[in-house]
Amino acid sequence: MTTATERVPSGPEAPSEEEALDAYSRTVTSVAERLAPSVANLRVMRQTRRGRLPAGGGSAVVLTPDGYLLTSAHVVARRSSAGRASFVDGREFEFSVVGADRFSDLAILRADARDLLPAELGDAERLRVGQLVVAIGNPNGFAGSVTAGVVSALGRSLPAGTRGGHRRVIDNVIQTDAALNPGSSGGALVNSRGEVVGVNTAVAGIGLGLAVPVNAATRRVIGELMTDGRVRRAYLGIAGGPRPLPPRVRPRYEMDSAVEVVEVLPDSPAARAGLRAEDLIVAVDGTLTESVYDLQRLMVAELIGTTVPVTVVRDGRELELSLVPAEMTE
User: Fold this and answer.
1) Which residues are part of the catalytic machinery?
2) How far apart are CA 70 and CA 107, in angstroms?
C-alpha cells in the first residue's frame, strides 16, 4: 500500500521534442555523409551534326569502384548519349551509356574512373509505410542536395515504354514525400541504414515523388544491362485489363479475376495462337494470372521462342492454346 507522499514508479519517459529531433537529424546527417560521395551529378550531351550539345542533366548512383553507375533511363534518353559525371569531392569523369531499359526506367553508365565509392543496395521489399527515407541527388543542378521524408505509399504503378511503341507498367513503385525536383531523377532513395532502396524517377505532384524500387526484379535488370547492355523480355501482342472471373468458373481457380484480352495485335504471337478479344487468360505455362502485373512478370527471356500453354476462358469454356512468345523490342 502506498502513502500520499510515496511516488508510484513510472515507465521510461518519452524522449523530449529536442531529443527526438536530434535523433532524426543524426540519422539524416549520417546517411547524407555516407551516400553523398556515391551520387554523381550528370551533365548529359548528345551527338548531333553540329557536334555535342547539352541534352539535360540528372543524377546517378555508383555501383562499382571501376565506374559503373545506375541512373534513370529517361535521363540519358538514347544510347548515343554521353557526358560528364561530377562528384562532391570535385572530381569529374567522362561517361558513356552501357545500356538503357525504358520498360524499367533504368540505365547503366560507365565512367572513366577506377576508385569510386560504391553505394550499398538494399531491398525495397522490406520497406514499410511511414519509414524514414532520404533522397540524395542534384535537383536543378545543385549537387549533393539532400531531402528527407517518409515512405507515404507502396505498391504504386508507373507506365513506362516508348511513345507510340510497347508499354509496360513498373510495379511496386515507392511513393515518398521527400522533395524531388528536375535533376533528382537517377538519384538515390536511401533508408536509415544507408542502403539504396530506390532510384528516384518522377515528381508525381507537390510533395509526392516516385522511385523505382531496388528488389530482385530490378537487380536482374541491372545485371543484364551491365553484362549485355539490354534486357530481353517475351512479348505476346495483346492489350489487356482485369476482369472478374465468371461465377461458374471461379471455383476451379484460387483467384477472383483474370486478364481480359482487350485487343490482339495483328501478326503477333497471340494472334497466331488464336487468342481473341474478350478471352480471359487465367494461366500461362501453368502459373495463374490474376492481373496484368502477374502476366507481365512471366514475360521473361527464357520464354522467347518457346512453346508455352496458355489457359483461357472463352464463353464460359476453358481452352488451352499453344503460344510462342517473341522478343519485345522498343
Assistant:
1) 74, 105, 185
2) 6
Average pLDDT of the chain? 86
3-state helix, strand, coil in the chain (%, to 5): 20, 45, 35
Percent of residues, the chain, with pLDDT higher than 90 = 50
> Containing H/E element for 225?
helix 216-228
Q: Give the closest residue to 166 by CA, choosing from 275, 17, 268, 25.
A: 268
Average pLDDT over residues 111-120: 94
Distance CA 15, CA 66 (A): 44
> In the listed set 173, 194, 228, which residue is the last one of a domain according to the structure?
228
Which H or E run includes 204? strand 195-205
Predicted local distance difference test score (pLDDT) of residue 97: 93
Query: Which domain, by its residues, includes 283?
Result: 234-327
d(CA 54, CA 184): 17
Kindly state whether residues 160 and 184 are assigned to the same domain: yes
**Does residue 143 sit in the same domain as residue 164?**
yes
Q: Are residues 172 and 220 in the same domain?
A: yes
Contact 63, 94 (CB under 8 A): no
Return all residues near 170 (Cβ < 8 A) that are at least 6 apart: 103, 104, 105, 157, 158, 159, 160, 212
pTM of the model: 0.79
pLDDT digits (tens, 9 = 90+) for 164-193: 556 666 778 899 998 887 778 899 999 999
